[in-house]
Predict the 3D structure of the following.
Amino acid sequence: KNQVEQSPQSLIILEGKNCTLQCNYTVSPFSNLRWYKQDTGRGPVSLTIMTFSENTKSNGRYTATLDADTKQSSLHITASQLSDSASYICVVSASGGGADGLTFGKGTHLIIQP
Amino acid sequence: EAQVTQNPRYLITVTGKKLTVTCSQNMNHEYMSWYRQDPGLGLRQIYYSMNVEVTDKGDVPEGYKVSRKEKRNFPLILESPSPNQTSLYFCASSLRQRGAPSSYEQYFGPGTRLTVT
């Protein structure tokens, strides 16, 4: 069964510090992996999308990495800001067939404290 | 402005009273999807549609119906709502072309908070 596990469930850090969120998956065959940011009560917004051949992708202070061999991804946030407080969701897409093929992680709830 | 819109944003209703939540996108996307989000469970897919007149069940389709008569619209129908359908609902769309990773980016609507009493 395809699964996406995210850790930690929640994280509190001080403003200005860096942090790294983890995503482990058992989705096969792999197509792409996406990270989303979801502010409380709002719809998720895409941060990055990575395919099998990409191992790093940046979007401003957000850097995602992908290790397709170990089936792990991480999202690194540099110099955190109060506006980074949100849930971060990892979504892995399987390729092939007519099915939707999306598997969602439950998210990491990040709180940035001043 | 490219966007996904949902209506209503907030709805309180009673058990058994049929309701429809509308979803519309202006990006000419082929793929549309409905999710519900509950605390501790994350986003769970209800139904999705690969194109006009093509719909399929997601992980939690029981108690819901959808239709895709036009490319831009994908309404979610609750024929007989029950309290366990109280949730935050999101509609999403994407272009979803093979071989174009960026086209898989999903655009989510602002959400509809539904309470069934």
Chain A is about 0% helix and 60% strand.
